[in-house]
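2024-03-11 09:14:02 INFO receiving multi-entity request
2024-03-11 09:14:02 INFO entity count = two
2024-03-11 09:14:03 INFO echoing inputs for audit
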Amino acid sequence: MSAAEPLLRVEDLRVEFPTDDGVVHAVDGITYEIHRGKTLGIVGESGSGKTVSSLTTLGLTRSQGARVSGRILFEGRDLVALSEEELRAIRGNDIAMIFQDPLSSLHPFFKVGFQLIEAVRAHQDVSKAAARARAVELLGLVGIPDPGRRVDDFPHAFSGGMRQRAMIAMALANEPKLLIADEPTTALDVTVQAQILALMERLQRELGMAIVIITHDLGVVAGLADDIAVMYAGRIVETTSATVLFSQPQHPYTWGLLKSIPRLDGSREDALVPIAGTPPSLINPPSGCHFHPRCPYAQPDHARIDPALEPVPDEPSHHVACLLEPDVRRRVWAELGSGRTPDQAIAAVGLPSVSQPPADLGEESR
Amino acid sequence: MTRYIIRRLLWGVVLLIVVLALLFVMFRVLPTADPAKLRAGRQQSPKIIAEIRHNLGLDKPLLEQFWLYIKNLFLHFDLGYSYYSNAPVKELIFNRLPATISLVLGGAIVWVVTGVGVGIVSARRAGSRLDRASMGTALVLVSAPEYWLGLILLYVFAADIGQVRIFPGAGSYVGLTADPAKWFESLILPWLVVAAGTAAIYARLIRGSLIETMGEDYIRTARAKGLSERRVVLRHGLRSAINPIVTVLGLDIGVLLGSSVLVETVFNIPGIGRLNYVAITHADFPIVQGTVLVAALFIILANILVDIAYAFLDPRVRYT
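2024-03-11 09:21:47 INFO inference complete, emitting structure
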């Protein structure tokens, strides 16, 4: 296997759920890849398809009646085409996953140690005693104090942060090549968030695994991710390296996300700018550019034309799906970056302003 | 935990005394057949009846009767004597207990195994034909009265009156120690009848509980670990889904031990239920009191056991 071949490559992945109200297009043709030892951040609002796409990687949407198309190549094998039994051998072994809510993700009636031992023995033919020793070692690795004693605790005796540490320990049981972390810090308070992120960074350095971190919070991926993919309504609307995304973002949705992060170093007078409207329906997504009902910069024909994810001129690793001219996008971001509001930026750049602010147009897509 | 159990047991004793008081009021104050008259035979005269009344202690004031009963019960574990046969009630009950316990515990095994089994299969294939057929059958079984189901089974399968004579019929009960094989044979039909309705309820209960559990986050974790689906369902899913079953199981067994009147009567099994039934028809107060007392005792104990079991089932539960 050549060094250039990605560890995981997702190609045109589509995941649909037939429901009584119609087909939910949870993931609508996304493509991304991640290399060994690297970190990819997938960012988006609730319902943008980020969790579904990662659950599908492990085949965990199969039992919910999902229709999956496209390819998920892991070390060259297409996970979509694998049998349940073949996938099971990969789950928790080559690819492990941790979840948003550590309080409900551990079984309340089994001891933490039992759940760790189970994870080890699901993929390794070792004795219970050896697996238990490994469980204690893992708890120590993720920074649980006195692991030899805590291994016999039930999850309810652990704090939220400790439970997420235990979840991480469980994910690491078989030294996976890829760790998928789905909102790993969302349910935790802020100081614990930082600890968990630091832990993940340290473990990645020590174990050399690749990480896909899924979050709605750009602040979480800022220090951690090498590359970032921004998802909206089941699609990737912008993807590039983390540095470029924070310095030269090209998509209005990314701008919205960046402008809605509170900053400690900003002036107290700087108001946060929320993204107006609500996330679109995934059963009947808006026509044209899916973001146009909420986009302050949308032009009349954006409701008609569906933008493709295309490279930004002169930036081959930066892709964006936006109908604005690249030059216009640069100038708008320059205005926004210097503290102007979207309306002021529109005026400064000379964009024909759409009559009304798109505050509640989200309803239109219902 | 020990303090908790002792407290619960003491409350249980209080509850038993309340039950006894209610029984005294029900049988001695409310209109009922006069046991002295029933006992007097054909040559009844007011004098004889009064004599019998005196011998049975029925002429004493009600409170005194109650006090004597409680005193004998707690000091000598004496439940009195049958008005009808003069046999000690304690002995009558103890002689009948093995039959009732055989019936109820055997039935419980049948209803737990079938109920939980059918419930799991239905939950895993919710909405399928198999699921709908199982739940439909369950509805029929829940609705079928025991005496009706018992008579139907006897009519179809009993060795004496049946159409297909496979199983021994009514009145064939033999003690376990006397002949284990015959004991087992004679109880097959009664077990099925006792179990039918309860198994149906358990199947529905497990089905609902398991479907709910399988949507929990920790089930997703179990799958993400790479456990087999079988282990995910039977270990992680069932472990949570089984809790409501334990509650009702304890109570169901407790209730049935004291009140399997219909099944014991239909199949002519010499248990507590039939003893009670016969005693009621003879206005044999001491026996009725004794059997109801035993029934209440079983229910109270079952309740305490269920609560203790819960502390083991759910590590988050702590009693003080």
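2024-03-11 09:21:48 INFO post-check: The CA atoms of residues 119 and 350 of chain A lie 59 Å apart.
2024-03-11 09:21:48 INFO post-check: Residues 355-366 of chain A have pLDDT under 50 and may be disordered.
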